[in-house]
Amino acid sequence: MTNLQIFLDIATEAALSAGVVLQDYLGKVEDAITEKGRPGDLVTAADKASEKVILEIINRHFPQHSILAEESGKLGNQTSEYLWAIDPLDGTTNYAHQYPCFAVSIGLFIQGVPKVGVIYDPFHNELFRAAAGLGATRNRRPIKVSQTSELSKSLLVTGFAYDRRETKDNNYAEFCHLTHLTQGVRRGGSASLDLAYVACGRVDGYWERGIAPWDIAAGIILVQEAGGQVTAYNGGDLQIDSGRILATNGYIHNSLSQKLMQISPLSAW
Ligand code: IPD
Ligand code: CA
Ligand code: CA
């Protein structure tokens, strides 16, 4: 078994265990919802309990690796070439409202490159997995991106960061324009599932600003292994800390990239 397969299997064990925690807490967190600083940026007891379970499993198997977890920050050996990026509950706002669109997201960077990704939606029992060179799957069956090649026939998905009330670079103009130019733009509320849905062809493209490494680490490799493309808005190399991502089926990549560059000068990088 290759190392990547081992990492994939341990990430799967962690994601499935965390998924059980999320299902257990669902509908029971009303008293334990707080804001993390910005209005609307919620954290619940479920986020914390889920992260605890994931950290225990990753630390037990890979004590020498480094970790970036949404609720705990940087942990472990920060000089390691292995970095686990963990979102224990992606879609907290949905979760707090019992809107069934949330997931656990666990990605592994090796020397800064996304290599392994597991996204688990416990409500719908959908497990998305990928590792570099090993393909992408949904519930253990291979998945591919869609073949839509015209923006006018595409369905897109995006999101709005928690700083949207404080900045003009809030993605509203992009959302409106692209709603006119396509068959529709969805706002799912879980970046990792947005990427998983690009990977399995339910949507043709996804873009977002203000996004964190733990939101997208797993989804990047999933889209790439499903045959899609992941870049910066301008089509150049993705900078993981830039907060911006463009992920598509590849066929609409250039046209969506061009539109994003035209629509918002603030987003032109
Ligand atoms: C959020 C979701 C949402 C995206 C936000 C993220 P959280 O993550 O992924 O779709 O639009 O930018 O912060 O806070 O639910 O883990
Ligand atoms: Ca998130
Ligand atoms: Ca989260």
Automatic annotation (TrEMBL):
Binding site for Mg(2+) 2: D90
MF (Gene Ontology): inositol monophosphate 1-phosphatase activity; metal ion binding
Enzyme class: hydrolase
CDD domains: IMPase (cd01639)
Binding site for Mg(2+) 1: E70, D87, L89, D215
Assigned keywords, A-Z: Hydrolase, Magnesium, Metal-binding
Coiled-coil spans in chain: none
Reactions mediated catalytically: a myo-inositol phosphate + H2O = myo-inositol + phosphate
Needed co-factor(s): Mg(2+)
GO term, biological process aspect, one: inositol metabolic process
Keyword Metal-binding among UniProt keywords: yes
SUPFAM superfamilies: Carbohydrate phosphatase (SSF56655)
Signal peptide: none
Enzyme Commission number(s): 3.1.3.25
PROSITE patterns found in the cross-reference section: IMP_1 (PS00629), IMP_2 (PS00630)
Entry similarity comment: Belongs to the inositol monophosphatase superfamily.
Name assigned to this protein: Inositol-1-monophosphatase
